[in-house]
Amino acid sequence: MDNIILIGYMGSGKSSVAKALAEKTGMELLDTDQRIEENENRRISDIFASEGETAFRDMETAFLKNLLDEGFKGILSTGGGMPVREENRALLKKLGKVIYLKTSVDTLAMRLIGDHSRPLLQGETEESKKQKIADMLASREPAYMAASDAVIPTDEMTTAGLADEILTYMAFA
C-alpha cells in the first residue's frame, strides 16, 4: 500500500485518524509536528515565538526532504500549515497519497475554541478565534485542494468511519 498522507486544518482530526489507520493497518505512524518538536527539543509554540512562522515552515520542508531521502513508509499526519508552501505540496505528493480531511468552520471552532496549545490562535477571544479560523481556512483551502489526491468531509464522520473510508479509497487508488 502507498503511504497515506493526511492534511487539513488544525482540529480536522489528522492525528486521531492517523492513529486509527495505524491500528487498522499496522503501518508506521509519524506526526510531523510531534517529530519536529522532538528534533528541536522544544514546542512548536516556542519555535513560533522565538524564530517565527517562516523558520518553522523551513523546518517542515527540511523534514519532508529528509523523509523522502530516507524512504519513509507509513502514515504521515501533517501540521495544518504544511501544504501552504508549494514546495511542501510537491514533496507530500512524492511521499504518498495525500488525503485532505475537509472540516467546516463551525466544527473546527467547536473543537478549537477551548484549545490553548495552537500558536496561530493564541491571544484570541472565542469570537475572534472563529473568525480567524474562517479566514485562515479560506486562505489555505486552495493549497489543501492542490495538494490532495482525495478530499474527505469529516463533519458527520467518526474517526473509525474516516479511517475506513480512507482505506477504501486506498484500495482503489
N-to-C span = 10 Å
Structural class, judged by helices and strands? alpha/beta
Rg measurement, Å: 15 Å
Strand order of the largest sheet: 2-3-1-4-5
Could you explain the architecture of this structure?
- The protein has helices at about 15-25, 30-40, 45-50, 55-70, 85-95, 105-110, 125-145, 160-170; strands at about 5, 30, 75, 95-100, 150-155.
- It has about 170 residues and is an alpha/beta fold.
- The chain has one domain (about 5-170): 3-Layer(aba) Sandwich (Rossmann fold).
- Strands 2-3-1-4-5 form a five-stranded parallel beta sheet, sandwiched between helices.
- The longest helix has 22 residues, at about 125-145.
SSE arrangement:
Blueprint: E1 4-7, H1 14-25, E2 29-31, H2 32-40, H3 44-51, H4 53-70, E3 75-77, H5 86-95, E4 97-102, H6 105-112, H7 126-147, E5 150-153, H8 159-172
Parallel strand pairs: 1-3, 1-4, 2-3, 4-5
Helix pairs in contact: 1-8, 3-4, 4-5, 6-7
Brief summary:
This protein has helices at 14-25, 32-40, 44-51, 53-70, 86-95, 105-112, 126-147, 159-172; strands at 4-7, 29-31, 75-77, 97-102, 150-153.
Name the features.
173 residues; globular; 5 strands; alpha/beta; single chain; Rossmann fold; 5-stranded parallel β-sheet
